[in-house]
Design the sequence.
């Protein structure tokens, strides 16, 4: 028999991300992913931006709530060429656009209900407030399509 998960609110939890790093993710169910797709299409039509680049940015902004080193929570836990990458909207956007490994991990994990089965649930509306603004979704997207 298949066990299905339907959450009243979106669960949030830390996921291992290679070695000593972990990423804090918020579950993105079907309703949220549909809202993200619809908003990305609307913004792409309005601005001429790339739909996929906008979608990737919105998914990242919704689902990723932080990252850190497991053994030292004061260290961001992610590095590029040995340089620490502190969690911020800008660094998140850059990783979602430029790192296939990172964006694939986020896309796969944030929609996997089974992975969130034991996580604490949080109010989706509190998290999504302001998420779908054009400034967040489009910022730098026109240039992104050339870099992807």
Sequence:
């Amino acid at each position: 028999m298949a066990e299905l998960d339907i959450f009243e609110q979106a669960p949030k939890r830390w996921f291992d991300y290679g070695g000593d790093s972990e990423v804090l993710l918020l579950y993105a169910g079907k309703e949220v992913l549909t809202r993200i797709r619809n908003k990305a299409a609307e913004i792409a039509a309005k601005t001429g931006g790339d739909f996929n680049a906008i979608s990737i940015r919105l998914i990242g902004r919704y689902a990723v709530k932080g990252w850190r080193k497991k053994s030292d929570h004061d260290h961001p836990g992610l590095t590029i060429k040995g340089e620490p990458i502190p969690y911020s909207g800008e660094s998140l956007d850059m990783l979602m656009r430029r790192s296939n490994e990172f964006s694939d991990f986020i896309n796969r994990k944030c929609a996997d209900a089974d992975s969130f089965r034991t996580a604490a649930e949080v109010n989706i509306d509190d998290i999504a407030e302001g998420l779908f603004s054009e400034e967040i979704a489009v910022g730098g997207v026109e240039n992104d399509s050339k870099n992807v």
Q: What stands out?
A: The chain has a mean pLDDT of 83.
